[in-house]
Each structure stands twice: as structure tokens, then as C-alpha cells.
Design goal:
- The chain is an all-alpha fold.
- Helices cover 71% and strands 0% of the residues.
- The protein has 22 helices and no strands.
- α9 packs antiparallel against α10 and α12 crosses α20.
- The radius of gyration is 22 Å and the shape is globular.
- It starts with a helix and ends with a helix.
- The relative contact order is 0.18.
- The model has no long low-confidence stretch (mean pLDDT 89).
Length: 381
């Protein structure tokens, strides 16, 4: 073999020869996501691993290759992705979220449940929109959960309904919109509220006792899972993580669930979700429909929460700031931070974060309930 053949063989193995224009488009998208995460700070914990998984799979598609005979030949990120398909990573994420989250604001202000429920409006808008766009019932149900801005629940429902062909598009749309909450929500919040409403200061929340915090995850698990048993993996893990936090007797488990385990799972889930976006599979008409449905659903979810916030503001004669209604989507604690940020733009002394955490936590439970409802209707696999 002469030198020319050596270089020809080497060149034939490079990505330049084996990729098509779709891969290059997705590489550009991945770089944009990395820019938004690193330079603009748009939820880098989510967006960096997702974008890098996207980058890897479009340079080296075999990193997501199926396992070959004898268990050989599978790509690295394919094994991560299998944990998504088995619903393991979404449930572990919920445990970590529970261990990190203080449910006190929700307990102190139960009306937050209503705003969390109202923000699920986007889910049902997306469901009927997806049906109108030609998706069947199970596909529409799986797509609709994007409207709750809840990546783990979106993955969980899609796998439980057996919608593996669109799982990647659903997961990427859900996590992308979660990451872009600071970009998407503020214009909607400002459009449907007045400056006077945005300046409303809310009264201090009542103190919540330790007993209330311990009983809350136990009671919620019993009530929700008795009504919708299919929600037990998600709601159960969320509440178990919170019980680790509030019981005070398993500090090591709480610290592990909210730190080491949580970050390991985020790395694996983020990179595997990003790795589902190979140009060949992702740049398809159905994928574009899913992404558009997700954006519309997310916008309507924010709208629903804000509008109920306005209604409650009127009923309580100005005691509730409508901005906290937008936090009823499930992106914890991103959506609550956006409520705080928008409120502070109009009055730097206004502190809405803890008030917004109530609807935010309620939204997580509400999205899980919506997923359980769809599983009850269509039957989990």
C-alpha cells in the first residue's frame, strides 16, 4: 500500500466524508445551545450535556449504535439512553428534585395548587393540537406533556405509552424549553399583566411546622397514588426524596440524592437526550411538528398560570401577584426564579421567589397527575 492509499483510507474514515448536510445543521444547533448555556447562562446544567450529546452524535453517529450480537458493538450513549427507555433516570431525577425542594411555600399557601393546575392548560392545548396535526392518541398524549416544561415526566410518559419512535424529539423539546424558560416566559408574563400588578408585594408566608413537612409527602403519596396508581413511580420518588429531606434522620441519603446522584443522573440523561438528535432522525416533519407543539403548549401553560394569577389577584383584592402563576409549570426552580426576576425589574425590593415556589412545586405534582391521567386513559405498556 502506497502513501497515497494510506491517506485516502484515512480520509475515508473522517466525519467529513460520512456526514450529510443534516448533521452539519445539528452541529450548528449544538454550538448555539452551548453558546446560550455558557455565554448567556441559560440553565447550563441541562443545556451543556444536551448540546454536547447533540454534538457527539452528529459527528460520530455510532455513539448511539444499537447493541450487536453477543452484547458487543453498542455505542456508549446508547447504554445511557436505555436507562431513559426503562424510565430509570426520570424517576431518579424526581427523587433528587424532591430531596432538593422545600415544599413549605406550597403547604403555607395551598391556593398555589390552583395556579399549578392552571399552568397545565398547555398540556391539553398541545394534546388536541397534536391530534389535529395527525398524531394518534398515544402520540398526542406523550407530546402534550412538553407543555408542563417537565423533561423527566415527558420521557416517562412516552416510554410508558410505548412511543419510542418520537421519544428523542419529545425529550429534546421538553428539556430545551426548560432551559429556555428565562427567554420564553417573560414576554408572555409582561403581555398579560399590568405594571401595577407586577409591582404587587405579597405578605410573608406563615411558618410551616416540621410535622406538616413530614406528613405532606406521605399524605400526597397516599392520596395521589390511590387515585392514579400509575403515577406512583414519579410521585413516589418525588415524595421519597422530600421525606429524606424533611425527616431529618437520613441526612446521608438526602445529601446523596440531592447532590452526587442528582448530578450523575443529569449528566447521563442530558447527554443521552442530546444524542437522540442525529440529523437523519431529528430533521423530519414529525419532529418539527413536535417542537412547534411543545412551544405552543409551553406558551399556553405560562398563559394559564398567569391568567389564574390575575383572577386570584382580583378575588383577593390585590394580595396575589399574578407573576407567580407563571411558575406553575414544572421547571423547578427555574420558573420561580423567572417570576422573581420579572417582578424585581419593576420593584427591586419585591421578593416573589418563595411565593412562586408554591405554584412551581404544585406544577411538578400537576404534570405527574396529567401523565397518570393519560396512562389511565390509554393504558401503560
Amino acid at each position: 500500500m502506497n502513501l497515497g492509499q494510506v491517506f485516502a483510507n484515512l480520509f475515508s474514515q473522517t466525519a467529513f466524508v460520512n456526514l450529510d448536510w443534516k448533521n452539519y445543521v445539528m452541529i450548528v444547533v449544538a454550538c448555539i445551545f452551548l453558546y446560550l448555556a455558557i455565554a448567556k447562562g441559560f440553565e447550563p446544567l441541562l443545556l451543556v450535556p444536551i448540546a454536547f450529546g447533540m454534538l457527539l452524535v452528529n459527528i460520530y453517529p455510532d455513539i448511539m449504535a444499537e447493541t450487536g450480537e453477543g452484547g458487543a458493538g453498542g455505542g456508549l450513549l446508547r447504554y445511557f439512553y436505555l436507562l431513559d427507555e426503562f424510565s430509570i433516570l426520570p424517576c431518579l431525577i424526581f427523587m433528587g428534585v424532591g430531596a432538593m425542594t422545600d415544599f413549605g411555600p406550597l403547604i403555607a399557601n395551598p391556593i398555589s395548587f390552583l395556579m399549578g393546575a392552571a399552568a397545565q392548560f398547555g398540556i391539553y392545548v398541545a394534546y388536541f393540537l397534536a391530534m389535529a396535526l395527525g398524531f394518534n392518541g398515544k402520540q398526542a398524549a406523550a407530546i402534550s406533556i412538553i407543555g408542563g416544561a417537565d423533561g423527566p415526566t415527558s420521557i416517562y410518559l412516552a416510554t410508558q405509552l410505548g412511543q419510542f419512535s418520537i421519544l428523542g424529539a419529545i425529550a429534546v423539546a421538553a428539556y430545551s424549553y426548560m432551559s429556555l424558560v428565562p427567554l420564553i416566559q417573560p414576554p408572555i408574563m409582561k403581555l398579560f399583566t399590568t405594571e401595577e400588578e407586577r409591582k404587587i408585594k405579597m405578605g410573608q408566608l406563615r411558618p410551616v411546622s416540621k410535622l406538616e413537612k413530614i406528613l405532606f409527602p406521605i399524605v400526597i403519596t397516599i392520596v395521589v397514588c390511590m387515585i392514579l396508581p400509575a403515577t406512583a413511580p414519579l410521585v413516589g420518588m418525588l415524595m421519597l426524596g422530600n421525606l429524606f429531606r424533611e425527616s431529618g434522620v437520613v441526612r446521608q441519603l438526602q445529601e446523596t440524592a440531592s447532590n452526587a446522584m442528582m448530578y450523575i443522573v443529569v449528566i447521563m440523561l442530558g447527554t443521552s437526550v442530546g444524542a437522540t438528535t442525529s440529523g437523519e432522525n431529528f430533521l423530519q416533519p414529525d419532529t418539527i411538528k413536535i417542537v412547534v407543539c411543545g412551544l405552543i403548549a409551553f406558551a399556553f401553560g405560562t398563559f394559564g398560570g398567569v391568567m389564574l394569577g390575575k383572577l386570584l389577584c382580583a378575588i383577593t383584592h390585590g394580595k396575589i401577584n399574578p407573576l407567580i402563576g407563571s411558575a406553575g409549570v414544572s421547571a423547578v426552580p427555574m420558573a420561580a426564579r423567572v417570576s422573581q426576576k420579572v417582578g424585581a425589574e419593576y420593584d427591586p425590593t419585591n421578593f416573589l421567589l418563595m411565593h412562586a415556589m408554591g405554584p412551581n412545586v404544585a406544577g411538578v405534582i400537576g404534570t405527574a397527575v396529567a401523565a397518570g391521567t393519560f396512562m389511565a386513559i390509554y393504558g401503560a405498556r
